Fold these 2 entries.
Entry 1:
Amino acid sequence: MIFAAILAGGTGNRMGIVEKPKQFLLLGNKPIIIHTIEKFYINPNFDEIIVLCPKQWINHTKDLISRYINDSNNIKVIEGGNLRNDTIMNAVKYIENSYELNEEFIIVTHDSVRPFITHRIIEENIKYTIEHGSCDTVIPSTDTIVESEDGKFISSIPNRQNMYQGQTPQSFKILKLKELYNNMSNEEKNLLTDASKIFSINNEKVFLVKGEVSNIKITYPHDLKVANSILKNGL
Amino acid sequence: MIFAAILAGGTGNRMGIVEKPKQFLLLGNKPIIIHTIEKFYINPNFDEIIVLCPKQWINHTKDLISRYINDSNNIKVIEGGNLRNDTIMNAVKYIENSYELNEEFIIVTHDSVRPFITHRIIEENIKYTIEHGSCDTVIPSTDTIVESEDGKFISSIPNRQNMYQGQTPQSFKILKLKELYNNMSNEEKNLLTDASKIFSINNEKVFLVKGEVSNIKITYPHDLKVANSILKNGL
């Protein structure tokens, strides 16, 4: 079975200040998250699309989905976790509770605020995860990347031709993901800022899928302007 | 003495196809390169501003400068080199031929297509180059950075908190720069895609100056849209 996990944030701002998360802002005539879900919805490979969002936004997300998407039977909205990987593991738990997990099950995890994901990127994530066990979507780094351990002086400047900027999806064989994650200490888990790292630090192969410059993450207000421009005219 | 080197490209396209380089496109009501030069021109610290551009664009660049800038006596336009570092070394040669170089001379090198450089960034480049010998302007990486040696599978995912995206200026004590560069083999020189690497691979300190997200490089057509939007409304 093949699942999509749309990552729409964790349990929300712990300061208690609840702003409307970016994924609910309008892009063209519908919310960003709906654009994103649709890209997976129209792909016939997915058995279920799991949307993970903060608890207080679950109902709103469900409302949006039923308003914008005709037959939303295979779309589930559940609560995310505190950290990105907690959110992904919540999706894994949901799948385990609903189906009998086997080693062929795969999950394609994607940021809800990357609405310009293409059909090709999704297809390649599925294909190469089946083949290699895990995929990460990347583009060659346009900037020189500089490493600094103390934040004051350069430690090294790695060869630019080896450096890539991570996008999403990141895709995994679910049983392997679960096994690797559960074998890590809490300390190790807290250091992971990236899901592909669960595989890479365990020396498991992660295949690179070519992303697109247009597969932007909408984080800052100016990203939304760029996104509206991409929507109208392309990149 | 303190010099600025505005890097506006090398000797041009070796295929013989001459398109108008990006730095000459209009941003608001004047060419990108004029915005950039002005940021250095209004800073009283610079003894000379050296603009390096392809041979066939030298006259055009001079014309633009005299059209847009009132008193352009301390702005020189000279030919760039094939590679970025050749271009920087052309500036060094020009300075050597014009002045008696001493170890206090510094050069602030900057992309001509980064017009949103701020006064603070320039000031800090000067200050910390005097103090430490070299500076690089960077912002913390927003994306996860992925390293791959074969371009197919991930080799490593470095800790994101140690990773920075390089911008410009990159600033150097000139005599040290020259000495380090001349001690490198041609093979080593050809591998350098970045000027700060001349210092870092020789274990010389390169101090990090905090850049700005708005200090964008105008490379793609959509960057020019973003730039026009920054010009009007800020980021």
Entry 2:
Amino acid sequence: MKLCKYGTNRVLEPQGVLPQAAQKIDNNMEIYDNEILIDVISLNIDSASFTQLKGEAEGDETKIGAKIMEIVAERGKMQNPVTGSGGMLIGKIAKIGKDLAYRNLAVGDKIATLVSLSLTPLKIEKINAIQMNIDRVDVTAQAILFETGIYAKLPEDMTQELALAALDVAGAPAQTAKMVKPGDSVLVLGAGGKSGMLCCYEAMRRVGPTGNVVAMCRSDADRDKLLDNGLAHAVIQSDVTRPIELMDKALAANGGHEFDISINCVNVPNSEMASIMPVRDGGTVYFFSMAVSFTKAALGAEGIGKDVNMVIGNGYSRGHAEITLAQLRESAELRKIFEERYV
Amino acid sequence: MKLCKYGTNRVLEPQGVLPQAAQKIDNNMEIYDNEILIDVISLNIDSASFTQLKGEAEGDETKIGAKIMEIVAERGKMQNPVTGSGGMLIGKIAKIGKDLAYRNLAVGDKIATLVSLSLTPLKIEKINAIQMNIDRVDVTAQAILFETGIYAKLPEDMTQELALAALDVAGAPAQTAKMVKPGDSVLVLGAGGKSGMLCCYEAMRRVGPTGNVVAMCRSDADRDKLLDNGLAHAVIQSDVTRPIELMDKALAANGGHEFDISINCVNVPNSEMASIMPVRDGGTVYFFSMAVSFTKAALGAEGIGKDVNMVIGNGYSRGHAEITLAQLRESAELRKIFEERYV
């Protein structure tokens, strides 16, 4: 059998697509020669998906657990059928296919997968705990990593929970690092969450003394956290579904000027216009939220005649794991917040 | 009264949203100082909306007319309550608000609006004809364009139908013009359609003698059309829902190398991976198709560890109408194809 580095061998239906687009994939835990078998410790469900699951189950843990078991049994992977999104996992290397023996990896190594659960073959034996406040599900399970599946060995100088919490959203700060230039004005929407805080931190480093980072959040607690820890020059409290009010507040915090860049880290729908309207013509709108609608963004910008570059946040960016872990090493404040809230 | 460039002054309910999201907008035809009044000649109802109206009225023209009158009376705009979509209109400038007097526009100019009817204040006096085969409704009516509402003056040197056919997809070639550089290799998916052909033409001009434009289409007729009219260096025939097969063919047509840019003009779902896989790390994937899924793109690139820039095709780009109409003036071949197929 010819092996595919993208894992298409395991696609059951429909044929010819990649594992992520598949309705159902093969979660038989006999590995091919170019695969890696993992004993899974926990699943970090992505925020959009977990919010949806919680809503559907009306906050009932047992129902959430049952729904996760049902999804994985049906699809062979933990891909939320409503949001289409997944998350990531941590576990220990159980077996390495012989074609990948050259890698700097050994059985027993603890890793975090950096590819989405929405394409990762998974078989859950049992759910051990659901940690509602950090979107984490502890399991007895096995999973498979394809040849192209990216992962990070968990570092020695921090707990696995801390590393995982940050790696989960590693694409966002890494892309912020590559995009933000000295002197830029940057608006971060949904700044109180994990990816929002990491983006704020990275933007603050990049804009330098002539730039301006405005963070948008909902609660007083998030506002205080952002300001007290120097994660933004200014904070506005607003609601992404009220784009005009949000824009007015954001512009007021930027000397009345439109922004060079907005970064959307919001975990609710209908945030597109709030991201687009405060940005200048020729500026960049970077959508990291998985709750963003492609057509609402494309038609929304057209509807108000805004010539902005709208970028789909790629979950992967070269070096994203290193960039994100370095943030936690550099910033005692960020590390403390992460340890208090997400571990 | 403080005037809003986005027209929110006219939102009646619910308060706080933009005109497109509003249930009802004010269609009083007294204009504000930053608005333009139009004597409407015809409405080009969008295809999804017109199909729905025809179905509901069981093809009865009188009933379609009555339904349109009812919708506009209720909402102050022609936004189909089932599909949510609108269309565009053609008319003559009746009055220009004094804040917009600086514009290169005069009373009597014939224009097409390039913003959706779903956000355009409209008052219909009477319906004169319904042209069932081209989704067009000729009316005696007035409409209002907001300060941010984009439009194009209809040119003298081509029929209104030809201009509209091209303006309908003007965002794509304009963004191609801005993105493609000399020496680039460019893959256009869905190259046989309107926007695909315009993107191919623009890419061919931009890449110059050291670049390579590969067009992907389905049919033999499209292949011949693209090659016979010099719209690409090479054509591949493939299926976007089979991304691995498509990638193999595309790379073979590019000397075995990955592409700098891919442009997605496909009108079917599940084309994301076919756009992402053939592009090099650091390259750009430009999604113009409205059938693209945000999450499939974001998670798909991550899933295969591809560090590409993924751009949401903005329906608007500065100068997009001029750029697109100029293509039809420059290329006799393109104009002939458009006149034969889309007028």
